[in-house]
Hints:
Largest sheet: 7 strands, antiparallel
Strand content: 35-45%
Distance between the termini: 38 Å
Order of helices and strands: HEEEEEHEHEEEEHEEH
Radius of gyration: 17 Å
Helix content: 10-25%
Amino acid sequence: MRTTIAALLLAVSLTACTRTNEANRPGPVTLSIHPVTSAASPSPFVEVRVGSVRALIPRSWQARMLPASELAQEGFVASPQIDAWFHGRGVPGIEAFWVDGNQLPIPSDYYYLAARNASFGALGTPCTLGHQQVFANHPPDLTGITYSPGDYVVGAQGVCQRPQGLTRWAYVVAAPGFGPERQVGIPSSGLYVVLAEASGPNSARLLHEMMDGARFGGTTITEIVQAAGRPAAAL
């Protein structure tokens, strides 16, 4: 699953042929971990916060900020074996980040292409696709003759037959363009990515909790997906 992210970011950087505007880069962000309170019983989750990104992870997992790069990404990875996750060794984990369009001044068309190129095939041969849904797909009109919001939102889920047993995976990739997704989440975002893999007897529930709990600027990734089905507000 790590390969998916690497390919996605590479598509943005190579297509854009540009560098981050260092002069306008915001101040440094930090990673913090907060308890999750539950009235019924102690929660098995904690909340990770990095800038405008928040997500739930199991208490026993480690979390680490994504390395600083020219791609103006802000987010984190978490896993019970975090170094193995970074090296794409097929362990449980979650990765959530967004790309700041203000810090990476490229046309929104490139984010559409990056999101469109995030393919299931990058997950590798031990994994199979159970379900995929494209919620928005409006190719940019590069001629300028007609208007297109240039947004692309896709979600997918499936299973992997790892040496340690069956795991479940899911991801959502959203390029808001000028579509209705721009009305929620982070106004300057060019791209949102959340991917996760879970194992064990409660893997389905754990995967759902992590994916649904991922937030960008107070908006869940689920709400961003739901916005893709709504008409855009008049400009």
